[in-house]
């Protein structure tokens, strides 16, 4: 049966999966959600015998119903291949009473690879299915991680180009090096003289420029977005929850039907929403524990029912979670309001105008599956050091936020349900913060690459290929522009004026 998509704001419905992927955001500014959440149609025992790729097919076929089996399998094959440094794609590690689901074995050693490896293939297949002859041009503003993951997903994918804008002085040296060494003739990386918000607003202005859209269409191009509100990023994230549960079942860590709690280090709310979808599909997930850093908007929301972004933006050692507007939360709100688009519009308008909204008591009751916890910067560092001292396992700061949230949850509730902690980045991606947490004194005067070697020696793990490569890679992108020249830069790259 075909599954169609509709907007959380009520202005668009009956949209096929492939159209929703191409479009990204709905016409009315809402997010696409499936008309219903499908149920898993394989037993967990069947799943436990499957590879990551087979699991991906069985989950995605339920959502992307207008893709043929061959199309989907081909997208999956192209995405989850040798770019990952392990055949199992998403391995599990057991440490200190929890299972860590390592989602950092892809090309950029962070979890965004799980979805951004497949999105380009879903998009180009979707374009073909809808007889779109235009080349797809992805525009992205990044504060570091998303840009690199999108670049590496789209690099050399026929029928696409990708342009990434980042704040010239606003990303870490390793993040910048990762981006400016990006290969692929269809890629362009541009530093802008401004901050992340300037880059983001610049990209939004280009997307909203109707005259530009027409001009591009005449030249055979159309813009699209790879950001985390795209349904083509959300659905691939459901896969690893099913996979992790099935593998724990296979290894005897879980017994059939046993509940598994999930802790997710959260920013834009995409990853944890995927876990919630998995639960609604029939996966025996217990509580969903949302872990925040000092930007604890979501923690406050789960406790009070009030979402309030009016607060200082704090820069932390877990930068991918430094977010005050969690855009994917809109999909959850829509469900909590029992699909009342009017309510969703009211709340989103309040957020836009006053920076704040309060959900109703009935909506709050439906939040019962979720708990929110947060970790301060000090607690995050203590968690990294404590875990290393006790077990030798090294956590990145994002995962450490989740590990700390788990400890607080257990202490507060005495809930002994087995627990999966989602590990979203390799410690090698945030080496300085990790090494400072473990041994502050050792770090003085050392460069980032020297620290990487220290981390390797200390943890007895190999430096990932993604890091080794950039140590010596040639810089390929040197474009820097003013915010007001972003449009000109885009046109120049496309060979237009
Ligand atoms: C993006 C990101 C997150 C947050 O994920 P969301 O889906 O936005 O909640 C957490 N950790 C890392 C390392 C990330 O890159």
Task: Chart the SSEs and their pairings.
Blueprint: E1 5-7, H1 17-23, E2 32-34, H2 44-48, H3 52-63, H4 69-79, E3 92-95, E4 98-102, H5 112-116, H6 119-129, E5 135-141, H7 145-154, E6 160-167, H8 173-180, E7 187-193, H9 196-208, H10 210-218, E8 221-224, H11 231-250, E9 260-265, H12 270-280, E10 285-292, H13 297-304, E11 306-308, H14 329-336, H15 341-354, E12 356-358, H16 361-365, E13 370-374, H17 377-391, H18 397-413, E14 419-423, H19 431-443, H20 448-459, H21 465-472, E15 480-482, H22 486-493
Helix pairs in contact: 1-6, 3-4, 3-11, 4-6, 11-12, 17-18, 17-19, 19-20
The structure holds pyridoxal-5'-phosphate.
Tags for this model:
497 residues; binds pyridoxal-5'-phosphate; 6-stranded mixed sheet; 5-stranded parallel sheet; single chain; globular
Q: Could you characterize the architecture of this molecule?
A:
The protein is α/β, with parallel strands linked by helices. The protein is 46% helix and 15% strand. It contains 22 helices and 15 strands. The strands form 4 sheets. The protein has a 6-stranded mixed beta sheet, sandwiched between helices. Helix 1 (17-23) packs across helix 6 (119-129) and helix 3 (52-63) crosses helix 4. The radius of gyration is 22 Å and the shape is globular. The protein starts with a strand and ends with a helix. The relative contact order is 0.13. The model has no long low-confidence stretch (mean pLDDT 95). The structure holds pyridoxal-5'-phosphate. Pyridoxal-5'-phosphate (PLP) is lined by residues 110-112, 145, 228, 265-271, 320-321, 398, 424-425.
């Amino acid at each position: 049966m075909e599954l169609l998509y509709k907007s959380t704001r009520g202005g668009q419905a009956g949209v096929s999966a492939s159209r929703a992927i191409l479009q990204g955001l709905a016409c009315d500014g809402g997010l696409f959600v499936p008309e219903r959440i499908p149920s898993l149609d394989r037993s967990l025992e069947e799943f436990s015998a499957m590879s990551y790729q087979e699991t991906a097919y069985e989950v995605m076929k339920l959502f992307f119903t207008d893709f043929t089996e061959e199309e989907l399998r081909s997208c999956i094959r192209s995405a989850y291949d040798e770019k990952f440094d392990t055949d199992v794609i998403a391995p599990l590690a057991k440490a200190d009473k929890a299972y860590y689901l390592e989602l950092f074995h892809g090309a950029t050693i962070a979890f965004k690879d799980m979805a951004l490896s497949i999105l380009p293939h879903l998009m180009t297949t979707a374009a073909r299915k809808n007889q779109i002859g235009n080349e797809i041009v992805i525009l992205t503003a990044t504060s570091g991680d998303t840009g690199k993951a999108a670049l590496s997903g789209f690099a050399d994918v026929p029928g696409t180009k990708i342009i990434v804008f980042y704040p010239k002085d606003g990303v870490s040296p390793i993040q910048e090096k990762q981006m400016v060494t990006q290969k692929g003739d269809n890629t362009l990386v541009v530093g802008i003289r401004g901050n992340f918000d300037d880059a983001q607003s610049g990209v939004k202005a280009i997307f909203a420029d109707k005259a530009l859209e027409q001009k591009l269409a005449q030249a055979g191009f159309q813009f699209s977005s790879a950001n985390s509100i795209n349904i083509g990023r959300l659905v691939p994230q459901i896969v690893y929850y099913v996979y992790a549960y099935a593998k724990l079942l296979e290894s005897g860590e879980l017994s059939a039907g046993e509940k598994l709690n999930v802790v997710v280090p959260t920013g834009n709310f995409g990853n944890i929403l995927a876990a919630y979808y998995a639960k609604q599909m029939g996966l025996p997930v217990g509580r969903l524990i949302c872990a925040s850093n000092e930007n604890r908007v979501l923690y406050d929301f789960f406790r009070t029912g009030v979402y309030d972004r009016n607060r200082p933006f704090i820069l932390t050692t877990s930068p991918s979670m430094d977010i005050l507007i969690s855009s994917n939360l809109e999909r959850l709100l829509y469900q909590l309001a029992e699909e009342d688009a009017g309510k969703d519009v009211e709340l989103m308008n309040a957020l836009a105008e006053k920076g704040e909204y309060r959900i109703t008591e009935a909506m709050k009751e439906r939040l019962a599956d979720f708990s929110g916890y947060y970790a301060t910067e000090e607690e995050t560092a203590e968690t990294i050091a404590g875990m290393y001292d006790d077990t030798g396992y090294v956590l990145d700061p994002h995962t450490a936020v989740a590990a700390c949230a788990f400890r607080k949850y257990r202490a507060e509730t005495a809930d002994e349900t087995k627990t999966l902690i989602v590990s979203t980045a390799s410690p090698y991606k945030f080496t300085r913060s990790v090494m400072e947490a473990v041994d502050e004194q050792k770090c003085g005067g050392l460069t980032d690459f020297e620290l990487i070697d220290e981390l390797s020696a200390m943890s007895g793990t190999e430096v990932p290929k993604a890091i080794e490569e950039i140590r010596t890679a040639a810089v390929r992108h040197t474009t820097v522009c003013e915010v007001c020249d972003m449009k000109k830069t885009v046109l120049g790259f496309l060979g237009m004026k």
